[in-house]
Amino acid sequence: MQKSGSTDPVLNGNDRPVIINDKWCKGCDICVSFCPKDVLERPEGGKARVARAEDCTRCGICEIMCPDLAIRVMPAGVKEKQTTGSQGGSTHAK
Ligand code: SF4
Ligand code: SF4
Can you give the pTM of this predicted structure? Predict the structure, then answer.
């Protein structure tokens, strides 16, 4: 008897105002620095995460400032759908 508890580690909690793509985040700390509400935090050596979602005003600054497009600010009332690897464009510019 198995439980089907499939919680996506990237979209952990689909009612969050801010979604951070853990695969794209490089931990540069820019979003943490620019957030006027101190919503985001980044553990040393880690990646950005939403620490105080209830304080987020959805101003969009973090999404604009992230150089890796790793942040998505969700409009109020919109729930993030789980995307199941439908990306087909990985480019390796080297
Ligand atoms: S600005 Fe983007 S890449 Fe940098 S820590 Fe924030 S989410 Fe990660
Ligand atoms: S949308 Fe604005 S308040 Fe919310 S996490 Fe981003 S910068 Fe902070």
Answer: 0.73
